[in-house]
Amino acid sequence: MNIVASRATESPSARTQVHWSIRWENELRLTEHAELAEFFRKSYGPTGAFNAQPFEGNRSWAGARPEVRVIGRDAHGVAAHVGLLRRFIRIGEVDLLVGELGLYAVRPDLEGLGISHAMRVMYPKLHELGVPFGFGTVRPALEKHLTRLVQRQGLATLMSGLRVRSTHPDVYPNLSPIRIEEVIVVVFPVQSAISEWPAGAMIDRNGPEL
Length: 210
Known about the structure:
CATH class: Alpha Beta
Strand content: 25-35%
GO cellular component, one term: cytosol
CATH topology: Aminopeptidase
Enzyme class: transferase
Function: N-acyltransferase required for nodulation. Acts in the production of a small, heat-stable compound (Nod) that stimulates mitosis in various plant protoplasts.
GO molecular function, one term: acyltransferase activity
CATH architecture: 3-Layer(aba) Sandwich
Strand order of the largest sheet: 3-4-5-7-6-8
Oligomer: single chain
Number of strands: 8
CATH superfamily: Gcn5-related N-acetyltransferase (GNAT)
Largest sheet: 6 strands, mixed, barrel
Helix content: 10-25%
Number of domains: 1
Distance between the termini: 5 Å
Organism: Bradyrhizobium pachyrhizi
Shape: globular
């Protein structure tokens, strides 16, 4: 699921009460999946009912399933979430190990609890896992949210004019099993410098996006 952010009204002081945890997928109980599924339905629902559909029941993922999650909670429950999946993507003739970041959402009653907050927790985990790069995609309309991250912390590089080819998580009779999107690619240099990112206008996930 691509990175999204929701509008909110809560005061900045309330955001200081968010507590972050890092959870491996095998650690999550059924009740936690149910809680996360409800959180995603409420977070993605305002962007369109189609975006909330994958999270029906207790399903807390949309395409590929994460292996690590950063979860922010406050007194009202889940406040924010970002997932991580190590995978190889293909750029031109190069197979590249990345930590793909996705399933990002913020509860609608919070404002300013952006990706920079979650990445303060996730970035050390990327280092611990030893991946060369963190990798994610966003729709062009959300580029400004990532631009703030680049300007404030300098953690990421944004790349435009690229296409990303993925598989659909399910196969349908009258729908191509793959999709190609022109998106903003977000790269977080971790163990490698951004100059080592391979050149190429097409990125193949060879699987569903996170």
